[in-house]
Amino acid sequence: MGSHPYTLKLDAQGGSDTYVVNVSGTGEYIVNVFDTGAQDDGVDSLIVHGLDTVPASDDELGDTFLVRHNFVALLNDDVGDSAFDVVERINYDENINARLRIEGHGGHDNFFIDDNASITTLDGGFGNDFFQVGQMFGSPRDAAASVAPGDEFDTIETTRGFLSNGITLPMVVYGGRRPRRLLCLSQQGCPQAGRRIR
Ligand SMILES: [Ca+2]
Ligand SMILES: [Ca+2]
Ligand SMILES: [Ca+2]
Predict the structure, then answer these.
(1) How far is the CA of 55 from the centre of ligand 2 (A)?
(2) What's the rounded Cα separation, in Å, for the pair 120 and 97?
């Protein structure tokens, strides 16, 4: 996963622990949430809070979260060119044995999920939030595609490309009060695939 000059390590060790990360929406860092307590010693949770913003228009993008088997990332456009250039990255693993919870709060937030290593809850909060479970890629996500060591992840070859798992462990999605969209490409069980959720 490489090193980063702004890295914070969190390890509350044995017993039940709750780790909370409030993202900033700008800049980049790595937070390592690696609880070294035994897997049967308590329940450990990770909660990631997005920004609670009030969008000025329907086009104003809120938080963009990327969820994989080894990290949650908030993608930031610090340059303001409508391209993501820096990342707030929270590494986690299966030692988060209770739940990974990501809350978008206010704003038109987007969630892209390629895989998970913990039972997961996504809560969009207020705003027109979008959730996509599984993404299509042009090639396997390995070193040949310049994916960093340790960040490789499984895909399934389909007629349209290489599809990420979407989820390995159960996930619950809460859309909030206004119309949301859920696009599910995953083959790992999506009872509401392609349907709007409320
Ligand atoms: Ca613990
Ligand atoms: Ca938000
Ligand atoms: Ca939201």
Answers:
(1) 9
(2) 10
Does 115 reside within a domain? yes
Cβ(68)–Cβ(112) under 8 Å? Answer: no
Distance 38 CA to ligand 1 centre (A): 7
Phi, psi (deg, nearest 5) at residue 145: -100, 15
Q: Nearest bound ligand to CA 10?
A: 1
Please tell me the distance between residue 185's alpha carbon and the centre of ligand 2 in angstroms. 23
Residues with CB under 5 A from ligand 2 (ion): 50-51, 62-63, 104-105, 107, 109
The range of the structural domain enclosing residue 72 comes to 7-139+166-189
Tens-digit pLDDT profile for residues 87-145: 999 999 999 999 999 999 999 999 999 999 999 999 999 999 999 999 999 999 999 99
